[in-house]
């Protein structure tokens, strides 16, 4: 293990050296709180290493980008707690999102701020896994699969003077005031993903056939069964009325989370995904109608029985499968039959002497093979 | 011409229903006697006006047809790009209407117009039937109601086209093809309206259906709407347009949907029983036909068919 770490460290040092020697140079850093001077090394664009699996991992921090992320005011070591000295030893654990941020206190409790509460909820959910999961659960999403620390909206980059100019009168530090404005305004306005983005995000895993197959295989090995719709979730949603409406650009149609999360406690609920067979799930047997009623106020038990993930898959829905087959067959047979009938009739009547157009008072201007021609034809 | 038993029954009923005078009856019988025995010679030798000679559709039916076909085609052109939203051609079609949001509104508005046209149609045929029954002029054979005769007509017509019969069957005002087409279109429209309403009012449908049926109903309706529409479009394109536009003798179109009239040769060829009624109801047609037969040297001056039948019966 020590030899492996030693090799990693050596590789990192070599890369740093190459990056510097190669003239990559450092880019001008935007000011942000780098009191621990981590950018001294991590500002270099080619800083990284090749893992034992042959994967190139970059350790570069682009200050211009990081200074616009939601975590830009958090000192690096608040999350990277493993680092005790500089230059630091090879990192083995990585960052866990339930780490307490020592530099920021939760103003409500006075204790160090942490995402621990939501991470605990997430751990107990169907999606729950550990940060450094090595087993089959590695396929499950971790916090950063969904939360990518997006850049602030452009409008938030320059807090409006008419607001912050007033604040600095008492709060003195413009940097603090700007950060406060960004933090609160971001939460006041709608920051959740659009319906289309939510569908794309969920589909990135649930629509990955290999991943889905691995999960089914894992469940089988563990003696569990996955939901009937699990392998068809994305395909069936796309074919559903809701899926189509989202594709058409109608944000009001239900996206994945509108049904699979509890609207009453949405932001917590999206972290505690449960299978539909779990009665606590918003799409569980007991809660389904209530969930439908969020958008369909007159929904009753019959409405709740309608499949929101319809498929024509034979094992999933034989009824729909055979109806679709029937329509498909009719789609071929009807035009073919009618075309054949039309051709048959055309040949027969042409043989009898009919012309295409009615002219000079008649369509029967041609000589018939059956005789009985028009007088004077 | 000696009328078949079926044509004779139609003629007799028409004479009774129209209260034809004795001289009128004699006129019809004489004309029938003049007509060549071979019906093929009759429809091949009559002169026809391309825009129609004999009354067929009332103004109400023509208005309904105009409303139905314009809304149907526009519904297809607005519905297909909604259903096949991801295809390369759907984007430009949706853009014509101002985007899929507008296309949906146009589609629903057209659907309301089509439903109104259907209601108008059912009201018109119901009222028309009641008036005919009240005036003792109703004959079910003259309606679109299917009968066993239609199956027989279909079989005989196919035999004729195949060259195994020398005459097309004596068909009524609405032949087997028209009845099939009417009920296919009517049934299709009903499915489209039902399924469209299940998209718009899913809660309403679920509330009136039992739990066991609600899900199946939605499943079948969601599939039926696009499939049925596509099927209807194919039937229209491959069959209806063939029969009324492309078929030999009908090209470039039958004008009856605008003029309400059918050509004489078409009436005799495909709706002979209705032509027999026309001879009773339209005295002018008797004069026109008589003049044509004389002019073309087709007039048969033998015994009256009524007299012929009586003589045969007396032997």
In short:
The complex is a heterodimer of chains A (377) and B (315). Chain A has 377 residues and is mainly α.
How would you describe what is shown here?
The complex is a heterodimer of chains A (377) and B (315). Chain A contains 18 helices and four strands. Chain A has helices at 2-21, 39-42, 63-66, 76-79, 116-124, 143-146, 154-157, 161-171, 174-188, 195-206, 209-221, 233-239, 241-248, 256-260, 266-269, 288-292, 301-304, 318-351; strands spanning 48-50, 56-58, 100-105, 112-114. A two-stranded antiparallel sheet of chain A has the order 1-2. A two-stranded antiparallel ribbon of chain A has the order 3-4. In chain A, helix 8 (161-171) packs across helix 9 and helix 12 (233-239) packs across helix 13. Chain B has helices at residues 5-18, 22-34, 39-45, 59-83, 90-97, 100-134, 148-161, 176-200, 202-208, 211-246, 256-259, 264-270, 272-281, 283-296, 305-314, and strands spanning 54-55, 261-262. Chain B has a two-stranded antiparallel ribbon. Chain B is elongated and about 70 Å long. Classes of the chains: A mainly alpha (377), B mainly alpha (315). Chains A and B meet through helix 13, helix 17 and helix 18 of A and helix 3, helix 6, helix 7, helix 9 and helix 10 of B.
